[in-house]
């Protein structure tokens, strides 16, 4: 998948009337940083969600260039607008608990939650990091699906993901 083709798709997601953080132009630098991190870590995918009314709302999904289109569309649809009760998804669990969530593909079943998507992404693990507002509530979640070859610890990945969006 060509990068020049994917960015307009990401920006079109941002321009939809779904809840967003602020304005599209405010998120473009964050999405550029997230894609750069995805590339640097050779990650299989990265995503950004906002949190409102006990739901996560997909802002952007940045897949690896070789990810099949049906996996991209399936994951995007499955995580577009999800209630906090769906904690089998790491991005939702991170938002609901306000804690970093690391999911390991080898430990999860293929049941529609993170295990399903990690297997589909061909990723070994994912790290989902909530971004909290001043009141300590989740305002966003940033997540990344990593290959087995990524040597970084959860703490290192968390630090890098938190740098995507300022608190």
What does this protein look like?
This protein has 167 residues and is α+β, with helices and mostly antiparallel strands. The protein has a single domain (3-162), classed as Beta-Lactamase, CATH 3.30.450. It is built from six helices and six strands.
Descriptive key words:
25% strand; 6 helices; 167 residues; 6 strands; disordered N terminus
Sequence-ordered SSE layout with sheet pairings:
Elements: H1 3-15, H2 24-40, E1 45-52, E2 55-63, H3 69-78, E3 81-83, H4 90-97, E4 101-104, H5 114-121, E5 125-132, E6 138-146, H6 154-162
Antiparallel strand pairs: 1-2, 1-6, 2-3, 4-5, 5-6
Could you tell me the radius of gyration in angstroms? 14 Å
- Give the CATH superfamily: GAF domain
Strand-residue proportion? 15-25%
**CATH class term:** Alpha Beta
Question: Percentage of helical residues?
Answer: 25-40%
Number of strands: 6
Which class of secondary structure composition applies to the elements? alpha+beta
Order of helical and strand elements: HHEEHEHEHEEH
Specify the number of helices.
Answer: 6
Number of domains: 1
- End-to-end Cα distance: 32 Å
**Order of adjacent strands in the largest pleated sheet:** 3-2-1-6-5-4
What would the principal axes of the Cα set say about the shape? globular
Low-pLDDT segments, ≥5 res: 1-23
Summarize the structure.
The protein has 6 helices and 6 strands; from the N terminus they run H-H-E-E-H-E-H-E-H-E-E-H.
């Amino acid at each position: 998948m060509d990068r020049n083709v994917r960015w307009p798709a990401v920006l079109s997601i941002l321009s939809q009337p779904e809840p967003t953080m602020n304005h599209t132009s405010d998120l473009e630098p964050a999405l550029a940083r997230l894609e750069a991190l995805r590339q640097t870590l050779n990650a299989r995918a990265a995503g950004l969600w906002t949190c409102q009314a006990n739901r996560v709302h997909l802002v952007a999904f940045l897949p690896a260039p070789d990810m099949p289109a049906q996996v991209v569309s399936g994951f995007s649809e499955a995580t577009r607008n999800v209630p906090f009760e769906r904690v089998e998804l790491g991005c939702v669990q991170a938002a609901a608990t306000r804690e970093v969530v690391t999911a390991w593909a080898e430990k999860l079943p293929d049941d529609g939650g993170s295990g399903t998507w990690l297997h589909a992404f061909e990723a070994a693990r994912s790290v989902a990091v909530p971004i909290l507002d001043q009141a300590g509530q989740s305002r966003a979640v940033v997540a990344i699906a990593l290959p087995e070859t990524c040597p970084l610890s959860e703490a290192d990945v968390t630090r890098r993901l938190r740098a995507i969006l300022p608190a």
